[in-house]
Structure of SAM-dependent methyltransferase:
Amino acid sequence: MERPAWAPRGIDISVPSVSRIYDYYLGGSHNFDVDREAARKAMEYMPGLPKIMQANRAFLRRAVRFAVDEGITQFLDIGSGIPTFGNVHEVAQSASPGAHVLYVDHDPVAVAHSNAVLEGNEDADVVAADLRKPQEILASSQFQGLIDQNRPVALLLVAILHFVEDEDDPYGAVAQLRDALAPGSLLVVTHASYEGIPLPPERAEGAVDVYKNIRNPLIMRSRDDIARFFEGYDMVEPGLVPMPEWRPDTAPEDEDPFAYSGFAGVGRTA
């Protein structure tokens, strides 16, 4: 197996990674054979997976523009993955020059590639850390250097919470982050769910099993369970809805049916 020049040293390129599979779905080039193989296997069950990822990215961009319109100029993107075209810092800094963006990911490829993309950008940085350990993120020099905790922050948890199992207490992690951020901060979430997938659940389960087999279980939660992440937040209109229905730029009915898989929402702390 040939090792690409951009692959950081010490990475086991025989093990698939969630962020590189996502990169493949989005048409990126920072993925290995094992990632493409896992992605294609999942697509045998759910051919619309790339459409779901594209809907995620489109929602993310709309939510970032919304945050800037609300006067927020600090972004904490946890589980940020591999930066592709139209990523958070590009959207935020084009709408609000000087906006601060901190990316957080535990995949070394995502971190290395983010470092390369952000070179020379003094208002954006990346830290290797894990959502399950919020205190490590908050204590990092990158967070301390970029994020002013006295001013509101947009906390982006896009397509990440469904990779955190209940025993790792995702609700506790989200609450710790909420309590560390200034009043008026936003929480931006997308989350996978069987609700809305245009397939019988047993077909969708085949795709979920692919993630389980690569030791990155995909936790499908109900709308009510996803709504619990917003405890302590007031929901921004239109609430917790399928991704194409959150403040759309184009007619939602023109969207691919797979784009309606899962939920998206934005909340604001009082």
